[in-house]
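We close this part of the discussion by returning to an individual protein. Part of our work consisted of pairing the sequence of a single chain with a tokenised description of its backbone. What the numbers capture is local backbone geometry rather than side-chain detail. The amino acid sequence and the backbone structure tokens for this protein are reproduced below.
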Amino acid sequence: MKRLMLFVVIACLAMAVIELYIAPKYLVKSICKLLLFLFIPYLYIRFVAHLSFKDLFSSKMKYMKLPIILASGVSIIILSLYWIIGSFFDFSNVTVMLEDTMAVDKNNFLFVAIYIALVNSLLEEFFFRGFAFLALLKMTKRWVAYLFSAGMFALYHIAMMTDWFSIYLFILILFSLFVAGYLFNKLDEKADSILPSWLVHISANVSINLIGMMLFGII
């Protein structure tokens, strides 16, 4: 259990260092994340935790009905909140930070948005729900697995969003990420699969990317 939790912390810290100090282009950062969030956890799940990799991606339809509803609701809520409260916050720094730190601009944002929605969301679900929750759940108490997975999911995004938003919006987003991580855990525990949370995560990312496209003036 301690080894698993330690690896999660180390992997998140490594990504924070990459985000804040190395600050490579998005492609290089994505390759680093692929190594830290997929291949090494896979080895642990396969040979130490002895979980079925296949089972993490399979779920009965009865467990997918609520995620489908939630995915639709999340998309509506995110876009509605942006349209309602967007004028009260300054989002102009988001595009500046993306261009300066990750070389993501108007010309390549569509490709990055597709990657974030499908591949990046899968990496995070495999790491934070498959590895840091479902695998951990078999080794410790439920509340420990819930709080650890949701907490690390929220804290991981701190380095990514540094200087993007005002402090008030930053705290709100951080709290929302923790709640989202906790709810994702609930969905996946029932299904014993990461598919439910992945579906909702994809929907949230698509909605956020649509906002990004608005900020870049693509749509």
The helical segments are 2-22, 26-47, 65-85, 92-102, 109-137, 142-161, 167-191, 195-216.
